[in-house]
User: Fold this.
Amino acid sequence: MPIITNIDDLKRIYKRRVPKMFYDYCESGSWSEQTFRENVSDFQDLHLRQRVAVDLSERTTASQMIGQDVTMPVALAPVGLTGMQSADGEIKAARAAEKFGVPSTLSTMSICSLEDVAEATTKPFWFQLYVMRDQDFVADIIQRAKDVKCSALVLTLDLQILGQRHKDLKNGLSTPPKLTIPTLIDLSTKWAWGLQMLGTKRKGFGNIVGHAKGVTDTGSLMEWTAAQFDPQLDWKKVEQIKKMWDGPLILKGINDVEDAKMAVKIGADAIIVSNHGGRQLDGALSSIRALPAIVEAVGDKIEVHFDGGIRSGQDVLKALALGAKGTYIGRAFIYGLGAMGEQGVTKALEVIHNELDLSAAFCGHRDINTVDRDILLIPKGFEGDWV
Assistant:
C-alpha cells in the first residue's frame, strides 16, 4: 500500500488505474483549458500569514452548510459519470462522505441512480439537477429526489449548452466505452477496473434510462442527452423549480456579481461560485478570483459556497478566508475514488481535513469558523482592476 500524504499522490495512482477516456473526462477543461488551469494556479497567488504564541489546543473544523452540521465545510461536488471512474462510484463516494460527516451531491448524469444511492446510505444526500427540455422528466426527477429524502437541491445554471471539450471528442467519450481499437488497447492495461465493471449492473445513466421517454438503452440515451439540455433556462424557470422543490435550494454556476444578486432576489438558500471546473466558458475568471466581489456584494444576504480548483486543505482555507461558508471538491475526490475506491475517497477527505486543521492553526485559529481575510496576504489586483 503506497503512503498517501497529498491529493497528487492519489492522482498518480488514479491515472494508472482508470481508462484514458475517463481520466481525460475528469482532468480537462474546454477549448484552451485556460480557466481549468487558473482555477488551480490562482490559489498560489494568495499567501498565508503565520501567527505564533497562540493556544492551539482543542481545535475544531466543525461547521454548517445550509444549516446542516458538517465535520468540515467541504462537500463532494456533483460529478457526472462517477460510476465509470470506479464501479458503483457514486455509492462508494456517498458512503465515504456519510461516514466522514460531509455532504455528497449526486449528479443528474450519474451512473448509479437516486434510488441506488439512497438504498446504500443511511443519511440524506444532496441532488444536483440539470434542467432538460422534457418538463415531465424534470418534474419526475425532482419528485424522485424528494421521495428518497434528499436534503438539498443543487441546481446547475451554467450548462444550458455544452462547452467544447476537445479530449472528450477525440476520445469518443461514452458510457459504457465504445470498443474501438485505441480503447481496447487502453482497457487491456486496466484489468482491475475492467473486472470491477464486469461485476456491476450499473453501466448507464441510472437517473435517465427507464425514466425519460424513449430512453431504453445506451444508444437512445446518447441521442436524448445530446438534445435535452434546456437552452431556455432563465430566472423565471429557476423560480418555478424552486416552487416545485420546496426545500433548500443551492444555485451552482454563479461567477458574476449580477447573477449572485439575482439568486438573492429569487430567494435561493445558497449559491456556489463556480465556472463548472473550467469545462464551459474557457477564459472565464477563475472561481477564487471571482469569489471576493461576489461575497462583498451578497455575502450578508445569502450563503456563499465555493467550487473550483481545490486540491488541498490550504485551498479550502483560502476560500473560507475570502468569505465562503462552504466549499466543494470534485476532481480531488475522483482521484481518490479512481485510485482506491471508497477507501480513496476517505483518504482524500482525510488529507484535506488534516491540511485544513493544521494550516488554520498555523494561522492562529483553533475554530475554522473564526477564519477571515486577516489570515491572507492578498496581492494588489488579485480581485481585478478591470477597465
Notes: The first helix runs from residue 7 to 17. The mean pLDDT is 94. The radius of gyration is 20 Å.
